[in-house]
Amino acid sequence: MPLPKSIATVCLSGALPDKLEAAALVGFQGVEIFENDLLTYDGSPEEVGRMCRDLGLDVAIYQPFRDFEAMPEPQRRRNLDRAERKFDTMQALGTDLILVCSNTQPATLPEPERAAADLREMAERAAQRGLRVGYEALAWGKQVSLWRQAWDIVRLADHPALGLILDSFHSLSRGDDLAGLDRVPAEKLFFLQLADAPKLSMDVLSWSRHFRLFPGQGELPVAGFLRDILRAGYRGPVSLEIFNDEFRAAPVRRIARDALRSLILLDDAVRAEAPPETVPAQPLPAAPMLSGLEFVEFAVDEAAREQLGGFLGTLGFRRAGQHRSKAVELLRQGGVNLVLNSEPDSAAAERFEMFGPAVCAMALRVDDPARALARAQSLLSPAWQERVGEGEQRIPAIRAPDGTLIYLVQSGSDIWADDFHLLPGAAPAVPPLAGIDHVVQALAPGHLDGFVLFYRAVFGLEPEPVFELPDPFGIVRSRTLASPERSLRLPLNVSESRQTGTGRFVSAYAGAGVHHIAFAAPDAAALVAAAPDAPMLEIPENYYDDLAARFGLPDEELAALQVGHLLYDRDAQGGSFVHAYTHAFQDRFFFEVVERRGGYDQYGAPNAAVRMAAQARRQKK
Amino acid sequence: MPLPKSIATVCLSGALPDKLEAAALVGFQGVEIFENDLLTYDGSPEEVGRMCRDLGLDVAIYQPFRDFEAMPEPQRRRNLDRAERKFDTMQALGTDLILVCSNTQPATLPEPERAAADLREMAERAAQRGLRVGYEALAWGKQVSLWRQAWDIVRLADHPALGLILDSFHSLSRGDDLAGLDRVPAEKLFFLQLADAPKLSMDVLSWSRHFRLFPGQGELPVAGFLRDILRAGYRGPVSLEIFNDEFRAAPVRRIARDALRSLILLDDAVRAEAPPETVPAQPLPAAPMLSGLEFVEFAVDEAAREQLGGFLGTLGFRRAGQHRSKAVELLRQGGVNLVLNSEPDSAAAERFEMFGPAVCAMALRVDDPARALARAQSLLSPAWQERVGEGEQRIPAIRAPDGTLIYLVQSGSDIWADDFHLLPGAAPAVPPLAGIDHVVQALAPGHLDGFVLFYRAVFGLEPEPVFELPDPFGIVRSRTLASPERSLRLPLNVSESRQTGTGRFVSAYAGAGVHHIAFAAPDAAALVAAAPDAPMLEIPENYYDDLAARFGLPDEELAALQVGHLLYDRDAQGGSFVHAYTHAFQDRFFFEVVERRGGYDQYGAPNAAVRMAAQARRQKK
């Protein structure tokens, strides 16, 4: 049996009923009622408690109760009166536990004995009503900021209705750990809050209030933290408390689903070492072994199909197949398959209706499609079924958070012969492509963390650090997810600037998924040279002057780069990257040809500003 | 003679020509060409140099040259080759100065002698072409991060073509100052960059790259820094180098004007103590002495005038005058004048056309309107003239950054009798208002810093720290500007969440200026009680339960608050604040009644979430 999963209402957007409904809908068993959500709501605590019970939600805790302990009189007495009022509220809500976080007031006395006496008094009053008090160290508490300090006070107070509350953010943000927790009696561990966060060098209060993330989205060792507390005997709910400005502004159900997905993944991450009674009976199906992209599919209409076919033809793509029953065409160049779908009444047609020509699906090669699908379903990504004709293949699929279909294709299988009339290939004039190197998606602001969690959880992709790319009109933030063996690379871009220039360019695709596709070429210069009609993006001469200065490239190599509008990058280990971009197709998406040499593992980020400025110039024209 | 004013192209949005044109248009004399702006531009350095000269701009410097000094071979030799290439670029651009910033590479040797030797070699090569090299300490340089370290190396190198470059951000962000700069010979001070910033606890690189501000917008002592360097004998350009994500995403001319405004204000701030030859011959006209708002004017049509008149009537406002020649009406309640303007073909009509009913003007009482106008004009805010009828008053006016008119009215004068038929006032049923306590404006994201600089510069208002107000769907950031004697208080709100709920509510006004007006009432409870028809915003009962717990208010006081839908706050000194809100008028703006007791100087921020949740509930209905 996994521990009950709970979420604090402060994580979610909207009014209190919206939050509760979303939490229940996705499958949480409990909630923390965040005080401000109650105060601003125009229903009584009794009504809120009833609403929770009707939704099948346990009110796990009421929180926070601030700035209570170790205050001088008359504040001390007033705080105890305040506690009594909150006990009334708890009883009306139907919860028996309140969270007291360590005092942040400058006036707090540096006397653990006073703090213990106050908490003991509060716990005694709580116990008279059958209630309990949990004490938590805030990372920025005035006298108490580490869990061991909080535990010393709880031990000193020595009251059965007083226990310890732990929060992964407060400990891990301070670089603290749970060593020594095994000496705390399990019955004194009253509650557990979990939060992840990116590693940021900023004051811990702002970091905590604005940038927390769900476990798996950030960089804190949350799984290890959970494992330690389970080993120490904790058996209560596992609850998320995430303060994040973007989450608070996002649709509530999407965030609630991300939240639960993060806990399901965490359950699995700790199962090997956690006590068996705390984890689900069945492990998650293992993440798929990936071997690249079998195809990428575009939603088009008849006209766009012709135009995109012509555009790709300049890079050597040829018509290689026609679907037996649908208006679906296969283009192929070397190891790259692109599908153009103009079938009416399909998911593709819907996509085209909304966004114009756009990528509507990607097919991943996986070692076991059924297992991959089962894992996705366990992680709250339901299966999706496209209409198929008689005798046609039924390829399992799920939807990415933006609605893009992700097909799960058996590695090594031939998916084409059954459904397509395949056409004999003419020898191409352009050297063959090796495959798809990476697919870049443009996300609307506020979507990055959800995408990261989705790909990390469902496919076991590993997120790389965030890059910031300056463009002529703002900043693009980029984070790449890649499979361990690098057969799948998915950079995700978010533009902070919505209204102008490249920001608009990026955000035009936001929600429409893919923004550009990079093809792997064994020799990028040779490919571009053999494709004289390919509409390559012009790169200014100044760029090559600087390249010469930076890398001391031989003149002939520099000239070859310049004539092909090729960009160049080099890593610290001497690996290098040669790449060129096409113009955008109908201002919607574009293609890149890339060549990796000597183990280069990046994406040419130093050249992004050059690319974006060139694109902005073209848009202006 | 003030020092020449320059700006780095990186401060501004767009392609290089857009940046240069904007800088020239607002009146800068020089520019720093930021390398990346040149590299991504598709014109040659010669063309860029010509463009600058045609615009009357001096190319003050080419920058930055990174990671140069104290590297082991073969990087050392390569860096010198790189420098030669950049000298070519400088000569093509037509500038004689390059900025070398201190090396950030882990491989940099910790040997000042090596750094000095390398810089000496570079300077010698530069000198052969008539060029110069300036060395600057980056705050995050590997071996050199303080200006004194950079100066030690420059002194050691001892070459006439090598000098020191100072940047206020790099020094002040480290808490450093310019003590000892008087021992640096003036001819060794090659260039000066100025930047302000908010005080943020985060790593200095991110802080510098994203959050710099123009002087006067932030919290660093930039004026003192400038004063010290002028006293040390610096006589070169004063140049702005501001990395700010919002500025990079904003219209380029607006930001260029803000930039120059900041330097004009800075010139004036240092004049008293700086050498006379470095400051303008004429001081800026002094900031006006303010004594509150004479009126606020709304753009309406006939229908909205009737409705708004009725809405305000419930708070005791009565029709007090009719304009002699225009469709303009005066409403009055105690010390508050509100003007409803439905005149066709006026600035108000334009405003109404764009935003519906909206505040279109505010009239400030100033000690000397002519001087206030002259100051505004000196600070790049031109005078604005509304059409007036014969014999009517001509009130000087300027426009706020969002186009709102700001009239400058002589304190103590009667502006009404000439232009209005005044109507006899009936004794009002509602106790009289004392005046306008504050006017809150909702800004579009990215506009806050520009507004702060405008009000600070033109009217001498003082910015208070930024508040963050959580609302049900995101975060509202709020910063208040107030006159020293508090007769004018202007909170500015920016919503980070654009698309949902209160975010939409706030951003609906963005650009339309005023979002709510708070009236000062000697007794807020009495006023609300005497205005039973006023459409006051309902506050949930839970709020009062919490108030009781937090402040221990007597039951009768609590009951009085609750019956009047009044909110309550108390400051650390025991001052308190009682306030209530009306519903929004046509979902556009609303009014507040506020009572300050015992020197309370805030705006009830802890209650903002309660207000916003209540508004969101109403919008949903």
UniProtKB/TrEMBL annotation, chains A, B:
Pathway: Aromatic compound metabolism; 3,4-dihydroxybenzoate biosynthesis
EC number, as in UniProt: 4.2.1.118
Keywords of this entry: Lyase, Metal-binding
Taxonomy, superkingdom: Bacteria
Catalysis performed (reactions): 3-dehydroshikimate = 3,4-dihydroxybenzoate + H2O
Cited PROSITE patterns: VOC
A Pfam family it matches: AP_endonuc_2
Cofactor(s) listed in the protein's UniProt record: a divalent metal cation
Role summary: Catalyzes the conversion of 3-dehydroshikimate to protocatechuate (3,4-dihydroxybenzoate), a common intermediate of quinate and shikimate degradation pathways.
HAMAP family: DSD (MF_02238)
Sequence similarity: Belongs to the bacterial two-domain DSD family.
Protein name per UniProt: 3-dehydroshikimate dehydratase
Organism in which the protein naturally occurs: Paracraurococcus lichenis
